[in-house]
Amino acid sequence: MTIKRHLPWPLLTLLWAVAIGLGAAVAVWTYQLGRSNLPGLQGDASEQVEALSEQVKKLSSENQRLLSASNASQNELKIAQTAQSQLAMQVKNLEAENNRQKEDLAFFDSLLPTNLGAPGITIQRFKAELAAPNQVRYRVLVMQGGAGTQQFAGNLQLSITVWQAGKSATINFPESNSADQARYRLAFKYYQRVEGLLNVPEGATIKAVAVRVLDRGQVRAQQSVDL
């Protein structure tokens, strides 16, 4: 017969705790030993992370710089386009003013004494051009020559010849019952300039424009322009 002695349970628990602690210590020591045998592993990973972080910072900075440069270039382009548009408008206005001054100079040349001997009402200049497919811009300069001229009172009448619906037609301005007849009245002693816009129905093709100076219903002068 064999007699077995049983250890008290508090002592048994203590022995198990010591064994577990020794096992953990051995595991930690083995891990530290492995890291000490590979000294470059941790250092290389840390250096790579730092290098990548630095590269990301540089790329972000460069991207921000390029974005700022792009925004600045777009702003400069918009400013340049606006300036170019304004310059083109100024050039157009200057050309129009220059042409007008040339016309005025030619008109005042016509008032020299050598030309004052031709009495009567004349259309000194008449210009008509398309401002739109169904719109005409016109300018008329009416003059009265001769010595001792009296105040002239009359009317201006314009006619537009159009091609519409396969046939030719004439549209008169102002119409007999038009409310804007005052726009076409003439009252001057030496000269009067009249200008404006005339509209025709959509789909009508403008062929020619004629202007007449009327004195109590009688034609005193007339001109026409083909378009």
State the name of the first-level CATH class of the largest domain. Mainly Beta
Total domains, how many?
2
The arrangement of helices and strands along the chain is: HHEEEEEEEE
**Could you tell me the mean pLDDT?**
77
Number of strands: 8
Coiled coil: 42-111
Keywords: Coiled coil
Pfam families: DUF6776 (PF20567)
List the helices and strands and how they pair.
Layout: H1 9-37, H2 39-110, E1 120-132, E2 135-145, E3 152-164, E4 167-173, E5 185-188, E6 191-199, E7 205-215, E8 218-226
Antiparallel strand pairs: 1-2, 2-6, 3-4, 3-5, 3-7, 7-8
Describe it.
This protein is of the alpha+beta class and 227 residues long. The protein folds into 2 domains: 9-110; 117-226, Immunoglobulin-like. 44% of the residues lie in helices and 34% in strands. The chain contains 2 helices and 8 strands. The chain has helices at residues 9-37, 39-110, and strands spanning 120-132, 135-145, 152-164, 167-173, 185-188, 191-199, 205-215, 218-226. Strands 3, 4, 5, 7 and 8 form a 5-stranded antiparallel β-sheet that branches. A hairpin with a 2-residue loop joins strand 3 and strand 4 (167-173). The longest helix has 72 residues, at 39-110. The chain is elongated, with a radius of gyration of 50 Å.
